[in-house]
Amino acid sequence: MAQHSNETKGHGQKDEAPKKKSNVFVIVLGLLVIFGGWFGISKYIHGQHHEETDDAQIDAYISPVIPRVSGYVKEIRVQDNQIVKKGDTLLILDDRDLSIKVDQAEAALATAQSNLGAAQATTNASRANIASTQAGVSTIDAQIDAAKVNLWRASQDYDRYSNLIKDHSITQQQYEQALAAKQTAERQLQILQQQKNQVTQQTNAVASQSNATSSQVSVAGSVIKQREVDLADAKLNLSYTVVVAQESGLVSKVNVQPGQYVQSGQSLFSIVLNQNTWVVGNFKETQLEKMKIGQKVTVYADAYPSHAFDAVITSFAPATGSRFSLLPADNASGNFVKVVSRVPIKIEFSNKADTLVNQLRAGMNVNVDVHLD
Q: For the chain, what is the largest distance between any 2 Cα atoms, rounded to a whole number of angstroms?
C-alpha cells in the first residue's frame, strides 16, 4: 500500500510540471502581445504627429580659395584644419612679373604726361602768335584808314590842279607834284592792303595750327587717362598676388605647394564657415502633406546620439533632389518604374546657446524628427 501510494504521488508530481510550463508560456506570450500592442499604438500615435528621416546631413557655407592672377606659389601661410579670420593672408604668389608691369605702366604714364605738356606748350605758343597777328591786322587796318584819308586828300588836290593847269593858273611842276602825291597815296594804300592780306593768311594758318595742337592736347589727355587705367589695373593685379581669406572659418586640406604654378580661377582649397551650420533633410514626397515652414524639429546627430538639438523648418527646395543630379531621370522614355522622390528641406538650429552646434561639421549624418503639431 505504501509503495502504491508513493507511486501515485510520484505520478502526481510529474503531471504538475507541464502545467507550470504552460502557465509561463502564456504569461510570456501575453506580455509580448501587450508590449507589441503598446509599441504599435505608440508608434501609430507618434507617426500621426511626427515625420522622421535619417537621410539628412549637416551643411555649411564653403568659400573656395581662388587666385585672381596666375603665377608661381611663393609662400603658404596656412595649414590643414587651421582657423582663419576674414582678411588673413592664406598664400603669396611670386610678384616680380607683375611688379615689372607696374613699372612699365608708370613709365608709359610719365611719357603721356610729358607729351601733354609739350602739346599744351605748342598750343600756348600758337595762341600767342594768333594774338600777335591779330594785333598786326589791327595796326594795318589803322594804317589803311590813314592811307585812305591821305589818298582822298591827294585826289582832291590833283583834281583842283587838273582844272588849274588847263587855265595855266599853276605851273607844270605843281601839277606833276599833285599827280605824284596821288599816285604815291594810291601805291601806299595798295601796299597796306597787300600786307593785310598776308597777315590775315598768316593768322588763319596760325589758327589752323592752333586747332591742330588743341586736338593733340585732347588726344594726349585721352592717352593719359588710358595710361592711368593701365597703371591701376597693373597695381590691382599686383595686389592679387596676396591671396586673403574672404570669410572666417576652417581651412580644408591645402592641395598646393610652394613653387607650384596656379592658374587664375583655379580652386586651390576651401574655407568652411562652421559658425553657421544647418541641416538638409531629404524627406519622401509622401511625407510632405502636413509639413510646413516654422514647425519645430528635433535633430539627433550620430556624433552625439544622446543630445537633442532644437531646430525649425525654414524652407523647402524648389525641386526634388533628382532634378539637380548630373543625369536627372527622364520618365518619358523607356520603361517607367515609379520611385518615390525626395525633397530637400532646410532646417536651422534655433538654440543658439547650444555649444555643441558649433562642434557639428558639414557632411555629418543626423536623424530628423519633425513635430507636425
A: 218
